[in-house]
């Protein structure tokens, strides 16, 4: 009888003190998945607009177009809690220059590898700063062109 009473007390206490789905909402379920933003500098050289999508709570894919090119890629965020700073690292691949292959504006493929910090509030507004390494190659031959340090500043909103 004592064993049954102890088992019932333990079961009842687990039921009372456990967290229910209504009282415990994970950060992942509150994550704002789709976003748009503006970027100063970055993979397109000057100004660009872009869109992003969190495919998991830590992995974000991004695509953008700017004055001198377009790009697409991904970022891995160390954490995705609201009202905190998250570190990220990523890789973007794009094209720099809209001219034809015969024009004076030489088309180049770029590999842009950013490392940065992002702050996002609970309403989905965010601000991020990143530094990056940019590797460029001439098209269509993929001849080495140059490797430079670079960076970007971004503002945007995720919905």
Could you walk me through the main structural features you see in this protein, from its secondary elements to its overall organization?
The structure is a single chain. The protein is mainly β and 159 residues long. The chain has one domain: Porin, CATH 2.40.160. Helix content is 10%, strand content 56%. It has one helix and eight strands, in the order H-E-E-E-E-E-E-E-E. Strands 1-2-3-4-5-6-7-8 form an eight-stranded antiparallel barrel. Strand 2 and strand 3 form a beta hairpin. The longest helix is centred in the N-terminal third of the chain and has 16 residues.
Give a short overview.
With 159 residues, this protein is mostly beta strands.
Question: What topology does this entry show?
Answer:
Elements: H1 2-17, E1 34-41, E2 47-54, E3 59-66, E4 69-77, E5 84-96, E6 108-120, E7 125-138, E8 143-158
Antiparallel strand pairs: 1-2, 1-8, 2-3, 3-4, 4-5, 5-6, 6-7, 7-8
Keywords, please?
1 helix; elongated; about 10% helix; mainly beta
Mean pLDDT: 81
Beta-strand share of residues: over 45%
Low-pLDDT segments, ≥5 res? 11-30
CATH architecture: Beta Barrel
How is the CATH topology named? Answer: Porin
Record the strand order, biggest sheet.
1-2-3-4-5-6-7-8
User: Could you describe the largest sheet, including whether it forms a barrel?
Assistant: 8 strands, antiparallel, barrel
- Rg, alpha carbons: 23 Å
* The top level CATH class name: Mainly Beta
Distance between the termini: 56 Å
Q: Please identify the structural class as seen in this structure.
A: mainly beta
Molecular shape: elongated
Whole-number tally of structural domains: 1
* SSE pattern, N- to C-terminal: HEEEEEEEE
Helicity range of the residues? 10-25%
Q: What's the helix count?
A: 1
Beta strands, count: 8
């Amino acid at each position: 009888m004592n064993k049954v009473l102890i088992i019932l007390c333990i079961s009842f206490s687990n039921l009372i003190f456990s967290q229910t789905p209504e009282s415990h909402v994970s950060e992942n379920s509150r994550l704002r998945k789709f976003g748009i933003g503006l970027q100063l500098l970055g993979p397109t050289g000057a100004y660009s607009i872009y869109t992003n999508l969190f495919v998991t709570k830590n992995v974000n894919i991004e695509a953008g177009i700017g004055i001198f090119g377009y790009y697409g890629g991904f970022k891995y965020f160390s954490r995705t809690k609201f009202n905190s700073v998250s570190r990220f690292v990523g890789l973007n691949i794009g094209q720099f220059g809209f001219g034809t292959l015969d024009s004076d504006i030489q088309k180049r493929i770029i590999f842009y590898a950013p490392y940065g910090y992002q702050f996002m509030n609970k309403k989905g507004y965010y601000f991020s700063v990143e530094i990056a390494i940019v590797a460029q190659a001439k098209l269509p031959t993929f001849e080495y062109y140059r490797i430079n340090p670079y960076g970007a500043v971004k503002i945007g909103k995720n919905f």
